[in-house]
Amino acid sequence: MMEGTYYKEWSAVLDREMEFKVYGHGGVPVLALPARGGRFYDWENNGMPDAAARLLHEGRIQLFCADSIDGESLLAGNESPRRRAEMQEKYFVYLTSELAARIAELNAPESKEKPLIWCVGVDTGAYQAVQCRLRRPRTFAGAMGLSGLYDMGRFLGSAEDDLILRSSPLAALHKNGICDKNVLSKAEENSLLLCVGQGGYEGDALADTQALADTLSEVGFPCHLEVWGGDVSHDWYWWGKEFGMFAERLFG
Asked: Which Gene3D superfamilies match (predicted)?
C-alpha cells in the first residue's frame, strides 16, 4: 500500500479542521473526491493510489485526497433542501478556493503561477469533481467522473431555488452565468472524462452519466463518455481500473 502525507488544517469557510492526504512528490496535481458519505482515507484503503503507482513514483501526478461533509449537505435528510444546498455550496468554495490554493502551495511552492489542477471522483465524488471543472475551469484543467450521480434532485429537491440550481449540473448547464462557457466550449474532449458500467448497482449512475453527457452535448461542451460492460459494478475494484487507465492515458 502506498504511503501518503497526512494534513489536518483549519478551513475558514467551513469553520472547522479538514483532513486530506497527499501521495507523490510532484507532477500534475489531481484532487480526488470520495463516494457519498466517504472520507479522505477511502482512496488509500481501497487501493486507488496504487492504481496510478507508476505515475506517482515518477512524479507525473500528485494525488490530493480530500474529505467530505456529505452528512451535513447532500445526505442531511433532516435539514431543508435550502440548508443542504448552503452546506454543499460552502464545501464547493472550500474545494475551489481554500483547498485548491493549498494544493498549489504543496505542489509547486516556488512557482510564480498556480498549477492547473485535475480532479477525479467516484459516485457523488464524481459530481463534486465535475462541478469543480464546470464552474471553475480556470482553476481545474479537467475532471474524471467515475460512476457519477449528477441529478441532485434526489439529494436537494428541485432546482427552483437559485442556490440549489448552482448545485445541479444537469440544470445549471442551461443557465447563463453559472458555467464559464467561453472556456468550456473551447476545451478538448479529454478534459472531461465520464465512465460508468452496466453491472450491479450502476443503474442510477448509468442514467445520470448518460444524461450529463447528453446535456453537455446540447450546450456544446465536449466530453468523452465510456460505458463499460455488464460485469462492471458500482465499487472500488472497477473504479481503480478506470482511474488507472484514464490516468495513464492522460498523464503517462
From this structure: alpha/beta hydrolase
How far apart (Å, rounded) are the C-alpha atoms in residues 192 and 222?
7
* DSSP-derived secondary structure for 86-108: HHHHHHHHIIIIIIHHHHHHHH-
| pTM of this prediction exceeds 0.90 | yes
**Side-by-side strand order, sheet with 117-122:** 5-11, 16-23, 61-66, 28-33, 117-122, 140-146, 192-196, 224-227
For 251, list phi and psi in degrees, rounded to 5: -120, -5
Interval 203-213: pLDDT, tens: 999 999 999 99
Looking up cell 435539514, which residue turns up? Answer: 79
Tens-digit pLDDT profile for residues 111-149: 778 889 999 999 999 999 999 999 999 999 999 999 999
236: closest CA among 36, 66, 43? 43
Res 174: pLDDT: 83
